[in-house]
Amino acid sequence: MNRMIFVNLPVQDLSASIAFYTALGFSINAHFSDETAACMVWSSEIYVMLLTHDKWRQFTKKPIAPGSTSEVMLALALDSTDAVNKMNAAAAGSGGTADVNPKQELGFMYSCSFADPDGHIWEPFWMDPAAIPQS
């Protein structure tokens, strides 16, 4: 079995969050979705589980952090700087907040950050494949 990651995120408005992530290019896996959760597919190894607050509380008793706090930033590798900019623009046009952190232009790497409607921070980035050390 391939190693996979399921990022679980508490969301206030499941329908709005589904629309947001769909606008970014995620698809929905209906087999693992219902009125309390949506499984959003980025790739065959990367999934984002959007969970209503009630559903989230079934997994942990810890409080949900308010939108003004930050605990994690999730980075997604994209194929080009243009793809990074398009995702950032899609986030801004779909209920998210673009450019929550300064853009990074390092020559071999380019990134920007946006927040989804619940304040979860994502950082799409592009890295020049020639800059990656070969092992």
From TrEMBL:
It holds the Pfam family Ble-like_N. PROSITE patterns: VOC. Residues 3-127 form the VOC domain. It comes from the Bacteria. This is Glyoxalase.
